[in-house]
Design a protein that fits this description.
The structure is a homodimer.
Chain A (H helix, E strand, L loop, with lengths): L14 H8 L3 H8 L7 H14 L5 H8 L4 E6 L3 H6 L1 H14 L5 E6 L5 H9 L5 E4 L7 H9 L2 E3 L12 E5 L1 H14 L5 E5 L5 H16 L7 E3 L4 H13 L6 E4 L2 H13 L9 E5 L3 H4 L6 E4 L2 H16 L7 E4 L2 E3 L5
Parallel strand pairs in A: 1-2, 1-3, 3-4, 4-5, 5-11, 6-7, 6-8, 8-9, 9-10
Antiparallel strand pairs in A: 10-12
Helix pairs in contact in A: 1-2, 1-3, 2-3, 6-14, 9-10, 11-12
Chain A binds a DNA duplex (16 and 16 nucleotides) through α2 and α4.
DNA sequence: CTGAAAGCGCTTACAG
DNA sequence: CTGAAAGCGCTTACAG
């Protein structure tokens, strides 16, 4: 069985309609709507009354056509959406961005970067479909970033690869500081042989987190333990934990560069009969389901990821409206102590 | 330090520009772009050539204004975005929807339903901002659904509350069948005393999953075990597991209505020293991080949630384009056997 | 098969 | 302070 639904195309009232009811010209109505200061108080009242009675809402397309503004911003995400959305980190960024956007006049649209035809995505972005873009995806070619930034306002949530010296705007956390915060906590708990499971070392975030761990340990007069590289996934964390355990270097704590990896590592530690935090203390980054849905729950650094998403939109809107912003905006971080340390 | 970036407003080529280069009128260019059959092959070639050389892309706003189409569809999500995005189920729906949308001419925009001012959301939706809406949020008042469905094409991903007899379109899984599939698997494994941790029983999905469990057990000539209600979260699952364990009814298996709850329940079973699947077998629903990031990994029914998101967009587009679709579209499900049974 | 013209619903100089 | 007019970039009857 199928159904056919017809939609009553109740054409919403137009500017002209409001003008007629208010007894003014549509120019005046337009001025009132756009808050022009040069309209009599009386006229404003009359127009607003008419607007309210008609339930008038400006036509977006018409406005967009003349203003050359779309009131849309794109969130550019990688083509591998399955992996992307599986990471609670990105879901949280989107959440914060969507939430903040809803308090503005801008709509947020999800734009999947086509890897087979990146040109398509760039075209879309440059051709006036959006007023600005939020980049959560590493474009195939980093030069594409620059080009895009020249066409429309762009805010990055991931560091572009390659060395970009052009003026770009980034919202991020201080990865080094976050890693240092977690590592210092381990030291404060009396641990002296601290290993790490790092993120991918071909990303700046991965390297910075590693550096924060190393520098903090060294600054405390200790010797950095072993390091195994992970890929931010639970299984990657588990594999790294196995390598750590199989190596000859003993350790009494491990700083793990993401909660997802920590969750995976914890399973391995349990399998090997190691107590957490008795035998091994764990501190990680990201305060999400992966740091609370474990036993014991994990001590972590809350990266305030939703705030990051919100800040990305906030900064982009400032840029769109012609404002100037810092090249780098850092989102505050916070240590959350739980039972794994 | 702040930076000021100026964007070269390289006005993209216009219809007129293409027309000039091709030596035809803009009407003809428009016809070619829109695939009108009544244009000479030669002309088509010449116009397409000009389009390619200029990198011309139609102006969305202008087209939208005259066509009274926006090429935008809204995904309406609840105001409690944090909880919403924390549930991998919804992240997966969005993922599938975004992915499918990117293969169409429609852009997907995330619209957060304002609970304090639901009128605002409805207004936005009805005022021609979008060509159609995908509903993943229970509107405060169910009558609002009907109203909305009368204004624009709407596809639901959640069952509206209250009894709606109007013509609405839903994309969903067969919850009863999914629960039955998981439960039957438990029976096939030789379990005879099967308890359940249900979803919220004030939702139809929760009730259907419970009913699938009950009916399957009864049909096998067994007696349904105890039932504890959960809220789809890990902690809710853990609490329900505790109640189950503290009751006097013994059980050798439990059907848990979501992987998130199962992950929480598993922690409790471990704490109490129960072996899975030795002492208790577990089967659940949802094939995501919560069913694989556990030890043992969970036998589950894959609800193909990303496919559901894709199907929602697919059906909505059919509706927008004037087609007729079934009132209910069911997404196929699949049993995935792992180590918990 | 193709072009000239009107119109989609706004905004904004330009006059007054 | 307000109105008439032009124009944003398209699509689509209407002629030919």
């Amino acid at each position: 069985m199928t159904t056919e639904t017809s939609h009553d195309t109740t054409l919403s009232p137009t500017l002209e309609g409001v003008a007629a009811l208010a007894g003014v010209s549509s120019s005046t109505v337009s001025r009132v709507i756009n808050g022009s200061p040069q309209v009599t108080e009386q006229t404003v009242a009359r127009v607003n009354d008419a607007i309210a009675r008609l339930g008038y809402v400006p036509n977006r397309a018409a406005r967009s056509l003349v203003r050359r503004r779309t009131q849309m911003i794109a969130m550019v995400i990688p083509e591998r959406t399955a992996e992307f959305f599986a990471d609670p980190y990105f879901a949280e960024v989107i959440q914060g961005a969507a939430m903040y956007a809803s308090s503005t006049d801008y709509s947020l649209t999800l734009l999947i970067e086509s890897e087979s035809a990146p040109e398509k995505t760039h075209q879309f972005l440059r051709r006036g479909n959006v007023d600005g873009a939020l980049i959560l995806s590493h474009f195939s070619a980093s030069s594409a970033y620059l080009e895009l930034s020249r066409s429309i306002p762009v805010v990055f949530g991931v560091r572009p690869t390659g060395d970009i010296d052009a003026e770009i705007h980034i919202v991020d956390v201080d990865n080094t500081a976050a890693a240092a915060l977690a590592t210092q906590h381990l030291i404060d708990r009396g641990r002296t042989r601290i290993a790490t499971i790092s993120g991918p070392l071909d990303t700046s975030a991965g390297r910075e987190r590693l550096e924060g761990w190393r520098a903090t340990i060294t600054a405390a007069g200790l010797v950095p333990g072993a390091c195994e590289e992970g890929d931010y996934t639970p299984s990657g964390g588990a594999a790294a934990a196995r390598r750590l355990l199989d190596s000859t270097t003993p350790f009494d704590a491990v700083f793990i560069a993401s909660a997802q990896m920590a969750a995976g590592a914890l399973v391995v530690l349990n399998e090997r009969g190691l107590e957490v935090p008795g035998d091994v203390a764990i501190a990680t980054l990201d305060n999400n389901a992966f740091s609370t849905n474990t036993s014991p729950q994990l001590t972590t650094v809350d990266l305030h990821t939703a705030d990051k998403g919100a800040a990305m939109v906030e900064k982009l809107v400032e840029l769109i409206q012609g404002g100037t912003i810092d090249p780098v905006t850092l989102v505050p971080i916070e240590l959350v102590t739980r039972d794994s340390t």
